[in-house]
Design a protein that fits this description.
The chain contains six helices and four strands, in the order αββααβαβαα. It is an alpha+beta fold. The strands form two sheets. The protein has a two-stranded antiparallel sheet with strand order 1-2. Strands 3-4 form a two-stranded parallel ribbon. The protein is globular, with a radius of gyration of 17 Å. About 30% of the residues are buried.
Length: about 180
């Protein structure tokens, strides 16, 4: 039987360990961001979390400061013009996501779960309400991320989120649960 407290304890332990081990990498990334462009090191944005409650997600800043606010990159006209040089590398390697270890430690997120959506992604949020995945803490990674990430259509992302919500176990997710 899946124990919520075990998963939360694992999230706390892994996030603390990750923050400590990755601190030197955080420092190097911060220096590169500051050298590459003006503006803050971190990017904060409102996201939808457990039970539809919003929280601020933290990432390393990968876009220029004059980028339109609260607009997903894929919806921007000529999105590449808004990404910094360092940002391209951070996004390609997913290193921009490392500050989310803090969100995990604070209890806004989990290591594994549906990726946190924007409040404006009403279609995705509605599908998550239907399949029950809105009741989970969003994750740093999840089934949709390992199954195609941003290339997946919204309906397929939500289906993976629902599958995870139905098959969550003490091992976070077992491959035989999907059969």
């Amino acid at each position: 039987m899946y124990k919520k407290c075990f998963k939360r304890l694992l999230d706390i332990l892994l996030s603390v360990l990750g923050i400590i081990i990755l601190l030197p990498i955080y420092a190097v990334i911060a220096v590169f961001i500051k050298i590459d462009s003006k503006g803050p090191i971190f990017f904060c944005q409102e996201r939808v979390g457990k039970n539809g409650k919003t929280f601020l997600i933290y990432k390393f800043r990968t876009r220029k400061t004059d980028t339109p606010k609260n607009c997903p990159t894929h919806l921007l006209a000529q999105p590449d013009q808004y990404i910094t040089s360092v940002g391209k590398v951070l996004r390609k390697t997913s290193l921009d996501e490392l500050p989310q270890l803090w969100n995990i430690l604070c209890g806004h997120m989990s290591i594994v779960g549906p990726r946190p959506s924007l409040p404006s992604q009403q279609d995705l949020n509605a599908l998550r309400c239907e399949n029950g995945s809105i009741k989970l803490r969003p994750g740093l990674t999840g089934l949709a991320q390992i199954s195609g990430r941003d290339e997946l259509p919204i309906i397929q992302k939500a289906a993976f989120d629902g599958e995870y919500a139905q098959n969550i176990t003490c091992l976070l997710y077992t491959s035989d649960a999907a059969d």
